[in-house]
């Protein structure tokens, strides 16, 4: 198996951190922008897109700040994806930080996918 490359992206977003956290940490919030439907049982989340299903485990979270998931297909690897809310101490500007991994030839595609999904999140939040 090839090693995946870690990449990080920052998206300025006009929303309160507490509201934003609900959209990144709850099944109902994630269903609004990340997947067609999201269900959870404890730490296990099921993400559903157009009939296909992927399961992920919530491996860590900090209330109001971040969530980190690992796809079950990557369970034996160090790979994860994390959504983190960052607030600038001086300007109070809010950003969502995305950390993800992809095969070398899929990094650009992964970044475009995140850009589209965060754009959807901004629309849901009215932060366009």
TrEMBL record:
It comes from the Bacteria. Gene3D superfamilies: 3.30.530.20. Residues 1-126 form the START-like domain. This is START-like domain-containing protein. It comes from Salinimicrobium catena.
């Amino acid at each position: 198996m090839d090693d995946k490359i870690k990449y990080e992206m920052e998206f300025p977003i006009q929303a309160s951190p507490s509201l934003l956290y609900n959209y990144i940490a709850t099944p109902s919030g994630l269903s609004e922008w990340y997947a067609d439907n999201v269900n959870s049982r404890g730490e296990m989340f099921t993400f559903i897109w157009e009939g296909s299903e992927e399961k992920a485990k919530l491996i860590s979270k900090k209330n109001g700040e971040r969530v980190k998931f690992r796809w079950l297909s990557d369970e034996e690897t160090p790979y994860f994806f994390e959504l983190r809310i960052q607030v600038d101490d001086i300007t109070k500007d809010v950003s969502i930080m995305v950390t993800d991994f992809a095969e070398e030839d899929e990094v650009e595609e992964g970044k475009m996918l995140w850009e589209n999904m965060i754009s959807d999140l901004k629309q849901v939040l009215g932060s366009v």
